[in-house]
Structures are given as structure tokens and as C-alpha cells.
Amino acid sequence: MTPTLAGVLLICALLLFLATGMPIAFALGLAAMGGLFMAMGPEVIGVVAETMFAGIGNLAFVSIPMFVLMGAIVAGTPAGADLYRALDRWMYKVPGGLVLSNIGACAVFSGMTGSSPATCAAIGKLGIPEMINRGYPSSVATGSIAAGGTLGILLPPSVTMIIYGIATETSIGRLFLAGVLPGLMLTVMFMGWAMLDARRKGFHFGAAGVHFSLRDKLAALPRILPLMLIILGVLYVLYGGVATPSEAAGAGAMLTLVVVVLAYRLFKMGTFRDIFGSGMRESVMIMMILASAELFAFALSSLYITQSLAEAIASLEVNRWVLMGVINVFLLVAGMFLPPVAVIVMSAPLLFPIVVQAGFDPYWFAVVLTINMEIGLITPPLGLNLFVINGIAPQVPTREILWGALPYALVMVLAIIILCLFPQIATVLPDYVMGEAI
């Protein structure tokens, strides 16, 4: 069997499993075992467990459940609501200001969690009903939250950046810094589109009957400032060389828990059970996907699919920007069918040497790859954020959520083009803080 035919069969099997509604991790694992059986026969049983455990047997992965726990702490307590209300009080007079508040809240919340689904769930539960009550169309209310939630995998601390750094053996601290300016740029672009859409559709009624005094605005700050200081502290110890990503994540999760418990007097055992249960479920899901993706990548390699694809891409005698265009199309399509974690684990080791050989900065490419994954989070058929929003607001048809989020996907395509024209947006901050990469 040729590698091309084996690859087609493997991908078809994966899509078939996904179409049945099977969880991503199980679909990846079963498809991988089928591929390995074709390559190795019954002996495949002997390598499955070893390969899966080897895929997650990296100490750096400890930072993932810690950052996820930070998100669960904020999302599962009144801290998320206070964050949202504080931004709303400062921006309520701007036409379409409630949309801007939601996007801003998503950006700040993303910096605390590194998780897009957690961001969508936390901000969406508060923002979507409030926007609909103030007269915003449901497509605008849900689409802005779905898009704003994607910022969770670009702004630090980003779980996908951690996984990319481990898969490509690049600096996680530098990757975090590379995502800061593009993340802020994308936030501003989202807000720009929201304001344009607000003016175009006459959203001057967004703040009708609502008024907050300066005292009200300042009163909302004391409870959220400690959380912001924790994020700044985590980033400082990480970039200052004081702690490793795993240590910084653990300390950040512990400090966040202490601050939230003391600020809101959350001493009931049920609160801790819900917080740790939510964090554990999402962490286990991510680690299962990582383990299954490692097995899937091993199957691709055993069938010589990755090697053949790498040779085919490397042999393209085209301009390097045409090559980057081909890679972007591949990432866009992959992101529509697989979660970011799975795409990065499977594609980063394959694409990384090709990108570096073509003369592209690997940290800039990490940002471009991540934005492609963001687009996949709000595009069918497996747009994770769309399903999260649909679960939060089941009364809103999925079609309306999709149409509301689609303009933001186009904004992200524009952001990729801007990064291609001005790659310094992603590289200037890491080079300034940590020195130029060797």
C-alpha cells in the first residue's frame, strides 16, 4: 500500500469516527490503531500504551492542568462576573459598547485561563443574556463571544503555545511573548469590527436606561485588580527566569485560589469540589487528546505518510510565500476538523523544519498557526466555541451563532495577512525582552 493511499484511508477512518459523535481522543486512538495494524500487524498491541504514555510523559505538561485550574477558579466563582461587570461599567456609553465589553472581558479572561472554551463559557453566561436584553440581535451577541473566546489560545498563558513549544523544542517564554502584540492587535481589530457593525446597525440604544457614576466604576476595580496582579506576577517570574513554566503555573493557580477564596468568602467544600472537578475534567480531556494524537502521529510516521508529505511540500519549487500559503490552507482545513491541541501535536513536528528551512521565524509561525487554529474554533463542522455557545444559549439557532462569528473569522484572516507583511509584530517583543533568537 502506498503512503498516499494509507493516508487517505487513515483520514477517512478518522472522519468516519468523528461523524459518529465519538470523542476526539477516542476517534484519534482508534484510527491510529487501525493504521498501526496495517503497518505492524497484531504486534501493534505492544506499542500502544507505551507510545501514548510517552506522548504525555513530559514534565512541561504539568503547566497545562495548572493553567486550566486557574481558568476553572475564575470561571466557577463570582470573579468572572466581577470582571465582566467592571468592563461594562467603563464602556457602557460607547455605541456597541456591550460588545466591546464582552470582547475586552474575553481578552482579559483569556490571560487568566489560556483556554478558549473556558473563556466562552464564563463570559457567555453573563454577556449573551445581557446583550439580548438590551436589544442586540442574537447573532451579534453570540458571535462576538464565540470569536472573543478564541483569544484564549493566543494571549499568554496559552496552552497551545506550551504544546507547540514542547513539540518543537522552542522556548515557551519566547512563545508567550510572541503572542502578546498579535493578541492585542487581534483584540483591537475585533473591537474595531464590533464598533463598525454597531454603527452600521444603529446600536446607539445599547446603553439606554443604563448609567454608572465614577464611584460605581471605581467600586468594580478592587476585586479584579488582585487577579490582574497575579497574571502580571506569573508572567514576570516566567520571563525573568525566576521559575519554569510549570512552577509559574502552579504558583499562579495557588495564588488565584487563595485570592478568590478570601475575596468572596468561599469556604464551602462544594465550591472546591466544583472548581477542582471542572479543572480535572478539562485537563484529562486535553491530556487524552495529547496521548491519542501522539499515537496517531506515530501511525502516520509508521506508514511513511508524514515523511512523504514532508518530501512533497519540500520539493515544491515555489516562492516561500506560496509555500506558506499552502501551509496556511492545510492548517485552516485541519483546524476545521480537529481541536488545536491535536493539530499542533500532529503537524508542528512535520511543518517546523520546513518552515525554518524556508527562512521563516519559528516563533512568528507559532502565532500564525495559532490564529489558524482560532479560525477553526468558530467554523464548522467542529467549531468547538460554536458548540460551547450553543450549550450556553440553546434558544439561539446554531446558524445565527455561525453568521455572527463569521465576520470575525475574516478579521483573523486579515490579521494573518498583516503578520505576513509585518512579522515584527510577533518578533519584536521576544527579541527585546529575551534577546534575538539564535
From TrEMBL:
Query: InterPro entries, alphabetically?
Result: DctM (IPR010656), TRAP_DctM (IPR004681)
Q: How does it sit in the membrane?
A: Multi-pass membrane protein
Signal peptide (residue range): none
- This protein's major location comes to membrane
Q: Which NCBIfam families match?
A: dctM (TIGR00786)
Role: Part of the tripartite ATP-independent periplasmic (TRAP) transport system.
This protein is called what?
TRAP transporter large permease protein
Organism of origin is Stutzerimonas nitrititolerans
